[in-house]
Structure formats: C-alpha cells, structure tokens
Amino acid sequence: MKRAAIFLAIAVALMISPAFASNPADWPITKTELDNGLKIIVLEDHSTPAVAVHIWYHVGSKNERPGITGISHLFEHMMFKGSENVEPEEHARIIQANGGTSNAFTYFDMTVFHETLGSEKLDLALSLEAERLQNLTIDSTNLKSERQVVMEERGWRVDNHPFMPIVEQLFATSYNAHPYGWHVVGWMSDIASITLEDCQNYFDTYYVPNNATVVIAGDVKTDDAVDLVKKHFGSIPRGEDPPRPHTIEPEQKGERRVDHHKQAQLPVFIAGYHTPELLHEDTYALDVLARIFSGGQSSRAYKRLVYDEQLCLYAGGQFETREDPALFYVFAFMNPGHTTDEAETALYEELDKLKNEPLTERELQKAKNQIEAELIGQMESIDQKAQALGNYETLTGDYTNMFGEMDKYMAVTADDVMRVAEKYFDSRNRTVVTLIPELASAGMGFGM
User: Fold this and answer.
1) What is the pLDDT of residues 302-320, one digit of tens each?
2) What are phi and psi for residue 419, nearest 5 degrees?
3) Are 183 and 278 part of one and the same domain?
4) For 190, phi and psi rounded to 5 degrees?
5) Which one, of 58, 322, 317, lies nearest residue 167 by Cα?
6) H-run or E-run covering 254
7) Over the Cα atoms of the chain, what is R_g?
8) Cα 157 from Cα 153, distance rounded (Å)
9) Which of 29, 96, 176, 255 is most buried, by CB atoms within 10 Å?
C-alpha cells in the first residue's frame, strides 16, 4: 500500500497550511491489548460528533496458496452474509438506518471492515462487528451466492478490463516464489473450486481476536471506548497464532519479458522493478523519485512521452509499498502509429538520467511538497486517521512507526535519489509485459 495511501486532491491539499496540520505524534492515542490478543487503538478527536470504527484483520491474498487464491476477498463478501443474530446484508442496512456508512476492502496484506457514524452509536457498531466475528454464518447457500458475485467481479475488474490483465501478468511473472504473484481477486478456477471446508478453515485460522486490531477514532472517551470493546469482544476466545508466509522472493538475475495478446486497439506495456518493503530506508527516496518521474502531467515521463514526443496517450509509473518487498511500475499507452519499443527506450532513458544527473533543487522541493500535501491530507478526517493507524499497526506491528514520516521525506537528498535509481532500476531487476492488440470482429473491439 502506498505510504500516503489516502489522498486528497493535490489542489485541495496544497491549500492546507502545514502549520494547521496535526502531528500524529501529538495525537491523544492509547493502545490496549485484551487477554484474547485483540488490540485496541483509540484516538480521541472531538472536532466532530462522529466516530470511525475500523477492524483490521492481518490477512490478505498474501496468506493464500494455489488452489484457494481469492479466498480473502471472498471472505470480505461472506462477512456481510449474516450471522446468528443478524440477517444477510442487514449489517449495512442497520448502519445506514442509524445515519452511518460502512464498507470493507481486501488487499495483499490485510482485510478491513469500517463504519463511520454518530459517536453515540459506537456501541452499535462494535456489537455488529463482534457478532459477525463470533457468529458468522458460513454455509453452502452463502458460498454459492458470493462465489458467483466474486467471479463476476473478477470478470469486470480483471478479465474484461483494458489494462488489468497485463498488470496481473506482471505480478505472475515478477514473482517466482512469493504469494504477491497473484491478484487479490484470485484466479478464476480457484474461486470456482473453493469449498465450504476451505472457507471454514480459513475463517477459523485468520478471523480470530489475536489477528485483529480495532481502531476507534473520533468523539469518544478512551476508557469508555475500551470498555465497550471489552464488552463485545472480550469473551471471544483467542485462536491459534495464524501462520505467516515466510517465503522471500529470490533476487531476480535477468530481465523477464512476456507478450500478452488481447482484444485491443492500441499496444500498451508495463515494466516492474523489485523494490523494498514498507519500512525500508530506501522507500523515502524512491517515493520522491516517483513524483519526479511520474507525478502528474508535469512529470518527466508524461512531459517527454505525451507532450514533447507525442508517443503516448498516457505514460507514467507508480510506486507502492507493502508489508513485504513490492514493485515500482512504469507503463505507457501508445498513440496510433507508435510502438512500445519507442516508449520503452524513452522511459528507460529517463530512468537512467535519474541515476546519472542530480535533481534540480526545484524538482526535489516540488516532489517533497506533493508528499507533504498528501500526508497532511491523510490526517484530515477521523476515517483517514483510523486508516493510517490501522495500516501501520497491522503492517509494521506498531502504529508509532508512522511518526516522523514527514521528517524522513524532508531529509531525502538529490544524492539519495541517484543512489536508489542506480540500485533498483537495473535491467536484470526488470519484468516487462507488452499487450499485443488483437482486433475483434466488427463491433466487438474496445479502445484504450
């Protein structure tokens, strides 16, 4: 997940003076752990009479194996299918009827359920979350219905999407050993064959108090909030400590290239470079580099390939960090009459410049300003604060690792950027996937 994962629009965020942004290290945060291993993080924020309730389970697609890929995402859906005392889909309806909102998401390293509602409804939100943790209905009817929903989602999110199939191919080709090698939604054949026994075993293994963190941010008193969590979750038995993936992706020793043939009108390519995990010291310089290389229409990649040489409809890149080492992507959507070879040459030349030519002070400061604006943006709402606390607690084991992020970014130098560019942007560390267009019969093609 990107370090500044919760964005406000840059134009809006830049209007917020850093002088008025709260420093996370100064937030009134309390962390408690119950006897059953459930962690509770409470942030008192009385700026609005509302509360955000997040429950973070330390399980995502990384915890899967071939044969049950996609089961983490499937369980995100199953968690809304009712329990002993709540009817299917009733959880969300109850929250809405009480003036709140609720949702959930699954990623490589976590699954998260969250509600935002009036602070006087905290007891209700916690009771609903505890109910489905303790009494979830896992039966063949729910599995059948949600399996079909997830298979359809797989179709529109990946199979029929103009770009995602080559992203999925990039994952599969970049990782020989690590479970980041499949998309969070899973492989279609696995989704189709997951059994009820697989579901029950997965739930019993990972949906236990000692694999969860409850984050409460908003207009609450810490002691009262902790007491409510104890009331609803305290009697749920601790489970066995869930197994963690131990696989370390072997160092890539040479470029890997794949052609992906797909119905399309124009060619596309994406290249991925292996980069380090969330807390690695190099991530700060890599994030700064990403803003300069691909941070908007004034970035080096976009300016050269789209504006100056008009090779591409769109060109850029993305840097994201996860619990384990992830990838830095560069990509290009070609203009008619131009080839991916032209775009690759230009993008790799721009990456080489980052290795050999120091950034200007203006570029460096602009990138830091972008990051600062995003970090400020993620501190604005109670939901965003809960998101940040849960993310760092789950992925690093300690929410306080988010403290001092701004200082680490501000300390990045032009030499640091050159160093990480040289270290990671090596052709031997690169995987390239090229979309080769195949036009369908008349009326059935689609554009990029």
Assistant:
1) 999 999 999 999 999 999 9
2) -65, -45
3) no
4) -70, -45
5) 317
6) none
7) 23
8) 6
9) 29
